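seq:
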Amino acid sequence: MMTPTIEILTTEAFAALGGPDLVYVRPVKAAEILANLDASNATGQIASKITQLLFATTDAATPKTTETARKIFEGLQRGEIDRALFTSNANAYFSEQAVKDFAASLGPLGAVQEFAQAGQGSRGGMTLRRYRVKAGQKNLRITTFWMPDGKIEQYQVAAAE
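struct:
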């Protein structure tokens, strides 16, 4: 019977193989995604999907916060915002003009086809929640920071690669 060997690579050695800058290490679960093609973002897309499957985290609040985050997104598509959901800092960011700008850029994308939490963590006493969104032909990511009282301090929308 053959004994399995474990090979440990330095960050530099892994990068020399074409590996990404970000490597996840968890007990029992590990993933390496390498491709010999620089002209494609397939490696990143595959890594993203595997990351979602292996490392997405949730808690008891996830279903409710995901529903709230989706309603906020759909409201922004229409140029509407429920200010009771946000901290005073976030409300200051979402000026009347900012909400109009969100509507102008997100509205034309069309109906949301997918909205799912892709990750969660803690930072500065807040809960970080990341979402992946598909609206029309566009893939987006939303990054949010939730205060302990449930109000949202940050709600950022960006194109996903």
